[in-house]
Amino acid sequence: METVEIFDPALCCETGVYGYHRIKKEVD
């Protein structure tokens, strides 16, 4: 698992950071 920061304008309101949020992504 790695934490990556991706750009997503739709999530800016949820995260409080404009267009950015952190997600955990599974890497095989």
Explain what the structure shows.
The protein has 28 residues and is mostly beta strands. It has one domain. Strands 1-2 form a two-stranded antiparallel ribbon. The longest helix has 4 residues. The chain is elongated. The mean pLDDT is 58.
Distance between the termini: 9 Å
Tell me about the biggest sheet? Answer: 2 strands, antiparallel
Shape: elongated
> Going across the major beta sheet, what is the strand order?
1-2
Indicate the proportion of strand residues: 35-45%
How many helices? The count is 1
Rg computed from alpha carbons, rounded to a whole number of angstroms: 10 Å
Poorly predicted runs of 5 or more residues? none
Helix and strand composition category: mainly beta
**Average pLDDT for all residues:** 58
Q: How do the helices and strands follow one another from N- to C-terminus?
A: EHE
Number of extended strands: 2
Domain tally = 1
Portion of residues within helices:
10-25%
Quick overview of this protein structure:
The chain has one helix spanning 12-15, and strands at 2-7, 20-25. It has one domain.
